Amino acid sequence: MHLRAPAILLAARQHGETAVVARLLTEQAGVVAGYIAGGRGRQLRPVIIPGNTVAAELRSRSDSQLPFAKLELIESRGPWLSEPLPAAAIGWACALTATALPERHPYPSLWEALGGLLDAICHAPSARGWARALAGYEILLLRELGYGGGARIPEGELPEILDVLGKLGDPIDQYLLADRRGDVMAARTRLLELLGRMA
Question: Which residue stretches, if any, does this entry annotate as coiled coil (predicted)?
Answer without folding.
Answer: none
